[in-house]
Write a structure and sequence with these properties.
With 190 residues, this protein is an alpha+beta fold. It is built from seven helices and five strands. It folds into two domains: 37-133, no CATH class; 145-183. It has helices at 17-24, 26-34, 46-56, 87-91, 123-130, 144-170, 173-176, and strands at 39-41, 58-68, 73-83, 97-101, 114-118. The strands form two sheets. A three-stranded antiparallel sheet has the order 1-4-5, covered by helices on one side. A two-stranded antiparallel sheet has the order 2-3.
């Protein structure tokens, strides 16, 4: 069983890096945050903005300084590594505005991996919502029992997939050494 053959995509959505650190501890949270190759970030501050800014990397920028005194003036040029997307930029993004970086493959290289974009609402849909037509109809009522049962079902399916992969990896000496014996703590909803 190959992960690629199942076309599995894992998405990690977090509101703030500090929430992940509270739930999993600093080391596990940092490890989880460093796994994805793609990053999409809206307005954030603190650890989250710093983490996102570091993911975008740095670029070499030339700086020129001119000094004047009574006799003459001098010009000096330096090069400094500056963040591609500074923390201040991430902290001041507007609603619907995002910065991101995408991963590519050697077979399909992307010339531009980083982006800065804005989601623009459709004016026709927005007008429809203003007059009350945008309400989503209730198809069925779902209680906490159904939500909990669905959570348990998905959790068990994921555990079964992980166990199957571990069993497959245990059969291969090259992959066996990558198995981590420690389990992540799982916080189940109330």
């Amino acid at each position: 069983m190959s992960i690629l053959s199942n076309q599995v995509a894992i998405t990690l959505g977090i509101q703030d890096v500090s929430q992940l650190r509270v739930s999993y501890g600093r080391d596990w949270a940092d490890m989880l945050c460093n796994l994805p190759g793609n990053l999409i970030c809206g307005q954030a501050s603190g650890h989250s903005a710093h983490f996102a800014s570091e993911k975008f990397g740095r670029t070499l920028q030339e700086r020129a300084t001119i000094s004047n005194n009574t006799r003459d003036s001098s010009r000096s040029e330096t090069q400094q590594l500056e963040p591609v997307v500074p923390v201040s930029k991430i902290a001041t993004l507007s609603s619907g505005e995002f910065v991101g970086i995408t991963a590519d493959t050697p077979e399909q290289p992307l010339p531009l991996k980083a982006f800065h974009g804005r989601l623009m609402p459709d004016p026709v849909v927005s007008e429809y919502e203003k007059v009350g037509g945008g309400r989503t109809p209730v198809v069925r009522n779902i209680g906490p029992e159904e939500v909990q049962a669905n959570f348990r079902r998905i959790h068990n399916e994921v555990e079964d997939m992980v166990d199957a992969r571990f069993m497959e990896m245990n059969k291969t000496s090259d992959l066996k050494r990558y198995i981590v014996k420690k389990k992540f703590p799982v916080n189940t909803p109330p």
